[in-house]
């Protein structure tokens, strides 16, 4: 096995299995149908909901939660906005109670902006009640500090990621997944959209250098160097939506260490493949092949 085989095996290993994708699809449709039945007088299991977050952008790994937005009738926003105290919290509780009709044996909680549905097999859904805007964005709840409505544009972000990924042979989404494994392995507090934003910029500016799995060692090394050289800032602008994505943790020192590890792995790779793979495992964790 060579570099191409190592990285192809790694990328396949960190993706969700087809079996789990099917389980997620069934649960997504059950949630959608129940909320449509209650709020839209419809039995559709696909209308008024979309996958968002890492799963919606298809940059998720086996450990990612599944985020979905469920669009509710706009008059509900006006009704809950009229509550004297935190109508956003009341809306979240109402949606949670509705979902208990089909998930009575599942652990469920309201958590600031989402209803979290946790299944016994480890799959977790974050369900976001929201209201579709004319510009394609959504109003969604934020129950903190007395409650407010926030605006998000997940469709714009999904479209931007898809377009850049298609222009670059699927490399963007694979890099996003690999970067998630790196941040988990190095205990970096870095959200999925921030990872995808940096990976998007990196691929946009130099993605034509990496044509196949055989160049993923170079892509990894160059991405870590790119991260380590980023200017100090409080936030980045997400692709498509240009929403602010805040930086919670200093990742540049870890990125520089991994740049050096990757450079060493590349240097020894041809003559000492076992040593090279150990260095890649130090970067990406135990899912990288031995």
UniProtKB/TrEMBL annotation:
<protein>
    <recommendedName>
        <fullName>protein adenylyltransferase</fullName>
        <ecNumber>2.7.7.108</ecNumber>
    </recommendedName>
</protein>
<keyword id="KW-0808">Transferase</keyword>
<dbReference type="InterPro" id="IPR006116">
    <property type="entry name" value="NT_2-5OAS_ClassI-CCAase"/>
</dbReference>
<dbReference type="InterPro" id="IPR043519">
    <property type="entry name" value="NT_sf"/>
</dbReference>
<dbReference type="Pfam" id="PF18144">
    <property type="entry name" value="SMODS"/>
</dbReference>
<dbReference type="GO" id="GO:0070733">
    <property type="term" value="F:AMPylase activity"/>
</dbReference>
């Amino acid at each position: 096995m060579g570099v191409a085989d190592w990285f192809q095996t790694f990328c396949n290993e960190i993706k969700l299995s087809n079996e789990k994708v099917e389980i997620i699809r069934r649960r997504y449709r059950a949630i959608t149908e129940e909320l449509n039945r209650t709020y839209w007088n419809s039995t559709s299991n696909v209308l008024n909901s979309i996958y968002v977050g890492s799963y919606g952008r298809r940059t998720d790994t086996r450990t990612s939660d599944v985020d979905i937005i469920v669009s509710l009738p706009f008059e509900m926003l006006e009704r809950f906005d009229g509550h004297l105290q935190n109508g956003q919290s009341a809306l979240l509780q109402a949606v949670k109670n509705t979902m208990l009709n089909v998930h009575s044996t599942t652990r469920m909680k309201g958590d600031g902006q989402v209803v979290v549905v946790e299944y016994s097999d480890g799959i977790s859904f974050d369900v976001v009640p929201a209201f579709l805007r004319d510009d394609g964005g959504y109003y969604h709840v934020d129950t903190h500090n007395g409650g407010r409505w926030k605006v998000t544009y997940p469709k714009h972000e999904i479209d931007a990621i898809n377009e850049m990924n298609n222009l670059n042979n699927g490399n963007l989404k694979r890099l996003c997944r690999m970067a998630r494994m790196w941040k988990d392995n190095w205990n970096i507090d870095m959200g999925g959209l921030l990872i995808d934003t940096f990976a998007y910029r990196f691929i946009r500016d130099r993605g034509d250098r990496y044509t196949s799995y055989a160049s993923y060692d170079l892509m990894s090394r160059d991405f870590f160097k790119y991260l380590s050289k980023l200017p100090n800032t409080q936030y980045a602008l997400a692709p498509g939506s240009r929403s602010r994505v805040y930086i919670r943790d200093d990742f540049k020192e870890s990125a520089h260490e991994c740049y050096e590890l990757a450079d060493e792995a590349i240097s020894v790779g041809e003559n000492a493949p076992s040593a090279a793979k150990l260095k890649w495992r130090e970067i990406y964790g135990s899912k990288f092949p031995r």
